[in-house]
Amino acid sequence: MSAHIADLWETEASRAHCRLCPNDCRIAEGRTGVCGVRRNVEGQLIAETYGRVSSAAVDPIEKKPVFHYRPGTLAFSIGSVGCSMRCGHCQNWQISRANPDDGPLSLLPPEDVPVMARRHGCEGVAFTYNEPVIWAEYVRDAAKAAKAAGLYTVMVTNGYVTPEGLDYLGDSIDVWRVDVKGFSDETYRKLCHVPHVAPVLQQAERAKSTWGMHVEVVTNVVPTVNDDEATIRGIAGWIRDALGPDTPWHITRFFPYLEMSHLPATPLPTLRWARVVGREEGLSFVFLGNVDEPGGEDTACPQCGKVLIERNGFLVDRDGVSPQGHCPDCGRDLGIVK
To answer: 163 and 66 share a domain?
Structure first.
């Protein structure tokens, strides 16, 4: 596959100014931006990973995790290499910290993505594993092909994107599954090595309000980093006010890894407490992930209390939600897309 010229950039003197993410890189000749995959080659910004796949799998959509959009379906999940952040606890660091020259990448033209998805019985396509925003040109082309074939599309993202970058993807993405890793600039500097949390929050709001995407939020609770009450209540209150109280919030357990291997795994009482806080702040659906907690991933009607979706790990054991996404007992609209 020939070199693919990137979109969303402009020339500034001898540098290529990338406008895709808030890192706002001005890239010198022969160098890449923070992501490691967008390179200035003879004055043009090249998207080096266009069509180059590091990982592909058939996953339940619940593994993303996405619980209230097409529950029980399979998503053809693909990723490449590179990332716009450098999180000290990244579980996929082998690809997120890699560059295109570190190892062989498979070629997958965008028009082949829906073919592969259908071949494996998938009803959707998920862009995941590494940060898909930095793969934007390919994501948009593959997502458009997928939607033309009747498949849904999911971004599993850290949410670090400019308004222009989000709008570039807006009409081709159905689900914005975003990590909110903290609620202060200090936490984002410490955990992710980026200066500000605001772009993540602002573009999640824009994904829903401007583009009508289904949004779900994940917070990996890291002991001593983002497990304080101000952070947990702050995130919960923001979800309620900015995205709506029926927005699913996945509170997940941290395990020691990389630069944060000295920290303990998140205690189960901390996760349970965070779930209580989420409910106190008015959220209807707060789930516990990366932990075996009975009922922690089930969906119950917030009005009548009936358990409607029972989950076992990434599998849906029972789905009693109506085809319209309502509780069949009391009629409450749950905001679930079937």
So the answer is: yes
